Amino acid sequence: MRLCVCLMLLSVILCASADSGLRRAGQFVRDAAGGAWDMFRAYRDMRKANYIGADKYFHARGNYDAARRGPGGAWAAKVISDAREGWQSSVSGRGGEDTRADQEANEWGRRGGDPNRYRPAGLPSKY
Hints:
Elements: H1 2-49, H2 55-67, H3 71-91, H4 96-110
Helix pairs in contact: 1-2, 1-3, 2-3, 2-4, 3-4
Region (Disordered): 84-127
InterPro entries: Serum_amyloid_A (IPR000096), Synovial_Prolif_Regulator (IPR052464)
GO cellular component, one term: high-density lipoprotein particle
């Protein structure tokens, strides 16, 4: 009888722990999906604005918005930023200096820095 009670208590504890872990995992996935959407939205706005000198602002803004969602959003922002910069530096021919500057803006946004630090004068206020 005691063994049965102990097993039941252990089962309840394990189920409660697993449920909490599943909730956290689910939240991470939701944050990551939302962060990917934030990154896409910043990219779309950058293309739509087509404003010279605004790319660092949009890098910082996308990472900032994604990271505010939580660990999953920050993870998605880092993965997307690193992949984009890796591809861009090998294909675009802009060079390492541009990639370093983009990564600085990415990290600034992910750390919670104000994206307006990179906002160029004259960029329409809707962005």
